[in-house]
Amino acid sequence: MMRNHPLARLLFGLVCFCAFPVLVNGAGIDGDVERQALNPLAILIFVLFVVTTLFITYWAAKKTSTSSTFYNAGGKITGLQNGTAIAGDFMSAASLLGITGLIFIGGFDGLVLGLGAFTGWPIMLFLLAKRVRNLGSYTFIDVVSERLDKTQIRSVAILGTIVTVILYLIAQMVGAGKLIELLFGLPYEYAVVIVSGLVLAYVTFGGMLATTWVQIVKAILLLTGVTLTAFLVLLEAGFSLDNLFQAATLKHPKGEAILGPGVIFSDPVQIVTIMVSMTFGTLGLPHILMRLFTVSDMVEAKKSVAYASGFMGYFFLLMVVMGFGSIMLVTGESQFYGADGKLIGGTNMTAIHLANAVGGDLLTGFMSAVTFATILAVVAGLTVSGGAAISHDFYAQILCKGKPDEKKELFLTRVTTVIIGVIAILLGIAFQNENVGFIATMPMVVAASVNFPILFLSLFWPGLTTRGAVSGALVGLISSVTLIVIGPQVWVSVLGFENAIFPYNYPALFTMPLAIITTWIISGLDRSARGEVDRSNYYLLLPQSELGPKAAD
Amino acid sequence: MKSDKVRNFIQRRIRRRFIFAGVTLILYFSYALNYTEAGSFLNQRLGNSYISGSLLMYGLIIISSILLEWIFLRTQEEMSSEGDEG
Question: Which spans in A237-267 are helix H?
Fold first, then answer.
């Protein structure tokens, strides 16, 4: 009965969509897409989550009366809270379902995405967290515009932010709609509108405060679910990793080959391009950088990143147990396979099947609801970031020259948020026939090739000028989009050509250095008066960026 | 004089940032060795155990990075007590 319930269909569809980025790596839904029998507990937990988060939104809405509160929750979030929210924002369902699914297919090879996603965080702590917090107010664009020509650099950085956020949103929307349509025959548009509707409720009324708490709740649920599942897997393996790996090699068709590389990936350049894109893309994600401004000062910002890093390190270590546990407990178990002999729901559903194997309906329901919560939390963070880029960076700082009417700005922020949600729905519908893998590849590559070089060089290179930064960012944007288009995902999969002109899906290994070299050359050749101001600004801002606002006096 | 002291202090902190970031990136990109001939020894199992060098490397990189963060924060506290953090 329950399996035909529209809500049940929707929930399962959403669970599946979260893992869509796995498609980027060639490990798409390869199993029968027959419907799953959902237990009522999953729906109950899901409803509880929605009610709780809407209550949080109601509470946050009463406190969100200024644009400052909207953008950064008034800067009153503690380091631990913010670290948890960052982890909630960043540990996507793709990480949970996608990486587990990849390990299920290829063993060790599936771990590269986990390592790539994790390593951005120590680098964030060492290089960016404190300096970004000391120089900015609401967005990373504030940081770069402190030093460079505000109008020019804001324009290009807004472009980078909007492109990243919109691509992220499109990938999520298209993934949601397609999987639900594919699996359950529900109209594509319904899924897209429902996801957007809930997120818009959080963000439009509760701003960053509601978004933060939704992300905190989600992070706690996710870490609890993964910990519980991993514990039960280890219980099955006698709390011995050696037993776990041995059992996995006995079950997997590739045997001991899964303990090392080569089952999915074998080209070292391909591995390095993925690693560069994941790590430096993380350092340029606007919605992640924005979270550094929700705390009171640089000390709390550092603590935030350290906590986030600890949570994520723990999470990505548990992925080893989850992945190899799924090989041990899901492979060959008839209840997880369809009539055609393929895994029900495809490899992206491996983590959910694992939860079922070790914890029955109770854990399956919990993990399904957690995955749904994950989608909402990530999309909410993206929406706040996109809204701030338009209303704060464009309207308040460029159009109003930094002196906007407070109420008008807040109103515009909410309107912008709704517009972004509507755009996401429309683009999600418009792109429904496109390859999601292609869309999902782009945000990390664009962030690594546009946002990260501008931010890093403005903080650490005295020679940077506005002209150089704008040129480098544009070269990064154009080259990354071009190489993605002529790469395998678009050239072969979307456009139907036999061979790709460029062989790699994640071109950041090439586009990020290209952006940096362009910036370096143009800045070096820049003899303008503005260029001199930009260079001297580095030394003027250095004490503030390194030692805090008091040092500026 | 005071500004020279502050500048030197800031330079030391920047150097330290890059040293920690550099070490982390070297650790991180050493993972790609798994996919080369030079790193083929990593693919072997450790003795009779089913834990391979590659898997051990994954765990060690994450744990080392967290340790580096901890050392970074501790030494920064010490440095801050030496200088005027502001």
Answer: 241-251
